[in-house]
Write a structure and sequence with these properties.
With 259 residues, the chain is α/β, with parallel strands linked by helices. The strands form two sheets. Strands 1-2-3-4-5-6-9 form a seven-stranded parallel sheet. A two-stranded antiparallel ribbon has the order 7-8. Helix 3 packs across helix 4 and helix 4 packs across helix 5. It is globular and about 50 Å long. The structure holds fe (iii) ion (2 copies) and zinc ion (ZN). One fe (iii) ion binds next to loops.
Length: 259
């Protein structure tokens, strides 16, 4: 992973902790871990952003789905400690008709069980587009989850540009205002990672369809303003655009350049 990231000009990357569609995680080989640490050191990769499984839904109405969420998150957080002090990003969940209040309560309940004092990993809640019954499409909802957590110091937020745009935050015309709002409601110190994606749809569409950088409704200039914003300096930027490796290399070069 580190080799591949370096080969396309990246100094960070994301990886799935298990099959994104769910299931059991592969056992960890201690030799792999050592090789990984060496490669990261060689290539100046300080921060990586793991992504939990998409099928993890801590606020499902079905007890067996919540049980899988609990087990997968607990294991993923244990496994993250092989690479200490890194970031683990997850989708807060979908309340599937139970209502946002119930969703927030159930998410906090699961997180309060899997987050343990002494863990070095920061768990990130991703800003969501608000597709279906997704929880976390407003800064308020994310703040309400975080304020219920016992280990809140181990929790942050990952801002996905496609998702916040689709959720109704106009980061094309009002980036500073949106970041001010984030700061007021969640606190910018909680913002630990960015997902940089263009969007196939309009602001407020609640669709969540990613586009390549510059090929969607956000556009290259707006995304470049996010990546180069002084308040976001140093945050890992992860591309989740529909691309092959050459495409990612080109997007990284495009976003890194100032104009
Ligand atoms: Fe995600
Ligand atoms: Fe994302
Ligand atoms: Zn998405």
């Amino acid at each position: 992973m580190a080799e591949t990231a370096h080969s396309i000009g990246a100094n960070t990357f994301a990886f799935f902790t298990r099959n994104p569609r769910g299931g059991k995680a592969k056992d960890i080989d201690p030799c792999d871990i050592e090789t990984f640490h060496e490669a990261c050191k060689r290539y100046g990769i300080d921060t990586v952003v793991a992504h939990g499984s998409y099928t993890v839904n801590p606020c499902s109405a079905k007890p067996q789905v919540r049980e899988f969420a609990f087990q997968a998150l607990e294991q993923d957080l244990e496994r993250m400690e092989y690479t200490p002090h890194q970031l683990f990003n997850m989708h807060p969940g979908s309340h599937v008709g139970q209502g946002v209040d119930k969703g927030i309560e159930l998410i906090a309940e699961v997180l309060n069980t899997v987050l343990k004092p002494g863990q070095t990993t920061t768990l990130l809640l991703e800003t969501m587009a608000g597709k279906g019954s997704e929880v976390g499409s407003s800064f308020e909802e994310l703040a309400r989850i975080i304020e219920r957590l016992d280990c809140a110091d181990q929790v942050g937020v990952c801002l996905d540009t496609c998702h916040v745009w689709d959720a109704g935050y106009d980061i094309v015309n009002h980036l500073d205002e949106v970041l001010d709002e984030f700061d007021r409601i969640i606190g910018l110190s909680r913002l630990r990672a960015l997902h940089i994606n263009d969007s196939l749809n309009d602001c407020g569409s609640h669709k969540d369809r990613h586009a390549r950088i510059g090929e969607g409704s956000l556009g290259l200039e707006a995304l470049r303003r996010v990546v180069h914003h002084p308040a976001l300096h140093g945050l890992p930027c992860i591309l989740e655009t529909p691309n092959d490796l050459d495409g990612y290399a080109a997007e990284i070069a495009l976003l890194r350049s100032d104009a």
